[in-house]
Amino acid sequence: MIEAVNPILPGCHPDPSICRAGDGYYLVSSTFEYLPGLPVMRSHDLVRWETVGHVIDRPGMLDFDGIGSSGGLYAPTIRHGLGLFWVICTLVDREDPSRGGNFLVTAEDPAGPWSDPLMLDADGIDPSIAFDEEGRVWLHGTRLAREPEWRDQTEVWVREYSPAERALVGEEHVIWRGAVTGAVWAEGPHLYRIDGAWVLVAAEGGTEFHHAVSVARADEVTGPYLGDRANPVFTHRHLGRASAVIGAGHADLVPAPDGSWLAVMLAMRAADGRHYPLGRETFLCPVSWEDGWPVFAAGEGRLPRALPIPWAVDAAPSGSWQPDDRTAGDVTPADPRWTALRALPAEVAEAEGGSWRLPVRAASLREPTSPAFLGVRQQHADVDVRCVLDVRGLAEGESSGIVLRQSERDHVALAVTRTRDGLRLSSERCRDGDPERHDLGALPEADEVALGLEARGYDYVFTHGGLERVAADGRELDASSTGGFLGLWIGAYATSAGAAPRGEVRITRFAYAPALTEQGDR
User: Fold this and answer.
1) CATH 2.60.120.200 intervals, the chain
2) For the chain, which terminal residue's Cβ has fewer other Cβ atoms within 10 angstroms, N or C?
3) CATH node for 13-232
4) Residue 351: pLDDT above 70?
5) Cis bond leading into 224, ω under 30°?
6) Sign of the four-CA dihedral 305, 310, 315, 321
7) 82 and 359 in contact (C-beta within 8 Å)?
């Protein structure tokens, strides 16, 4: 039987939300400061996935300038109702909470175009949306409790939304403050109308090792809600640090064609039980119903390595990408995996055939703005990346290179700089905002320079010509060590280090090749 292999979306695809429309499943996940934002993934079987578009894909839809890493787009929800696809999300500035807020967009086609964001009069994060039998629309989300009983207690609110007025209307109702006394961050709420009852599924415990799923139920959408006596109904925290998958939670339910139910949720692959350079990934979990309550992974109590998908007719091709079913290799400019920082790739670079022309920018990788950067998620623990740069266009004092990025405060790069005396190779490490630069010597004059990055678990090695080797430790770069919510990105950049930029670099090749193991390409 054909199986869906976990994680179904490897690499940094956190806070997944899924809906079913017709014969398709549509999924979105958080993208924070990377653009285009909120990729819309489509699958007809939950096995093979493709990117059909992005929700935030036009200049000026939202203002990201100055938003630091792990700010930006948080925890979207996607739903289909009233003849439209709906996405509701939060734009977050962690340094300035007054900026951004919850917004709503709609589209007739999930591939787009999506409407301009409608900002909502609703505070907090992790908004969601539900429809009742009468066609009424109910928005809900999480915020810090107005009258907290303990630190970081949150509350889930629900309020009606009027499509005609394009606004929240009527009375607000607080329906949930967490299942466990003292538990923090009851968040990621989703409401479902199932068999005449309203079912609330929410995360709890914070999106880290102690993450969990809790459930409540009510007759009316506005409550009162009764918690499941089994709460939290799903978690990996009881498995301890010996578990290679930690932090399971933030679940979203979806019905399957055979009448069964499934959930997508985030979790982290952590070989040592603590560190997860690939970030929070999207996993699939079977759901059954007992006495009106959802049971996650019945009889097992943990995320399975793989799920049989009886309605699937084709397996994902051997060695293919999940997502996007593409053979690993050169990442061309047409590939939707490319992202830029706080700007669209087309705003910082120009595609020319199979290459990118990347004009140098004054900004460095240490600034919360839009540097000359293009990158892709790291999606495999073991991978080889090769980046070939045409450096003929670099002006004196300008640098370009390959970077392993967690944030502007934490990254490692191997760079080529044009000096008065020719090309020089250097390494740069930025740890908690403190940069260190080391000169590695002169390079022979050449039109192109090939830089590499080899990842094997937590061990990363930058290379040039197989001679210069700069090591980095993924345990020092992952979110559990640095803070924030992101996995690692691998990309190319160019900077004039604050001087007026004059040059450009061309990314003539960017190859991403997973190192295959006995278990395949994951």
Assistant:
1) 329-514
2) N
3) 2.115.10.20
4) yes
5) yes
6) negative
7) no
Q: Are 499 and 362 in contact (CB under 8 A)?
A: yes
> Tens digit of pLDDT for each residue in 384-394?
999 999 999 99
Six-digit token pair at 248? Answer: 């399971």
Contact 143, 127 (CB under 8 A): no
Q: Which residues are bridge partners to 201 per DSSP? A: 190, 215
Block residue for tokens 């914070």: 206
Q: Name the residue among 331, 337, 415 with its Cα closest to residue 372.
A: 415
Asked whether the beta carbons of 213 and 238 are under 8 A apart, the reply is no
- Token representation of residue 406: 């967690």
117-147 burial by CB neighbour count: b if 16+ within 10 A, else e? Answer: beebebebbbbbbbbeeeeebbbbbbbebee
Cα–Cα distance for residue pair 24/45, rounded to 1 Å = 8
Bridge partners, residue 441, by sequence: 425
pLDDT single digits (tens) 94-139: 988 888 999 999 999 999 999 999 999 999 999 999 999 999 999 9
Which pLDDT score, from 0 to 100, does residue 518 have?
33
User: Using CB atoms within 10 A of its CB, is residue 441 exposed (0-12), middle (13-18) or buried (19+)?
Assistant: exposed
Are 90 and 126 in contact, with CB atoms under 8 Å apart?
yes
Contact 86, 106 (CB under 8 A): yes
- Catalytic residue chosen out of the listed positions 93, 187, 390, 428: 187
Task: With cut-offs at 50, 70 and 90, classify the pLDDT of residue 330.
Answer: confident
Q: How far is CA 509 from CA 43, 385, 390, in A?
A: 29, 10, 9
Rounded Cα gap, residues 247 and 264, in angstroms: 13
Q: Is 187 a catalytic residue?
A: yes
Phi/psi at 167 (nearest 5 deg)? -160, 160
What confidence category does residue 443 fall into, taking pLDDT thresholds of 50, 70 and 90? very high
For residue 239, give the DSSP letter.
G
Among 297, 215, 233, 288, smallest CA distance to 258 is for 288
Neighbours of 420 (CB within 10 A): 6
Question: Could you confirm whether 325 is annotated as catalytic?
Answer: no
Q: Is the dihedral of CA 309, 311, 317, 320 positive or negative?
A: negative
Least confidently predicted of 76-85, 409-418, 506-515: 506-515
- The type of residue at 386 is R
- Entry pTM: 0.96
- What would the pLDDT profile of 146-172 be if each residue is shown by its tens digit? 999 999 999 999 999 999 999 999 999
Nearest to 118 by CA among 243, 110, 127, 109: 127
**If we measure between CA atoms, which residue out of 172, 72, 81, 93 comes closest to residue 129?**
81
Which of 2.60.120.200, 1.25.40.10, 3.40.50.300, 1.10.3660.10 would CATH assign to domain 329-514? 2.60.120.200
> How does pLDDT run across 270-328, given as a tens digit for each residue?
999 999 999 999 999 999 999 999 999 999 999 999 999 999 998 887 666 666 555 56
Q: Report the distance separating Cα 387 and Cα 493, nearest Å.
A: 11
* 3-state DSSP assignment of residue 392: coil
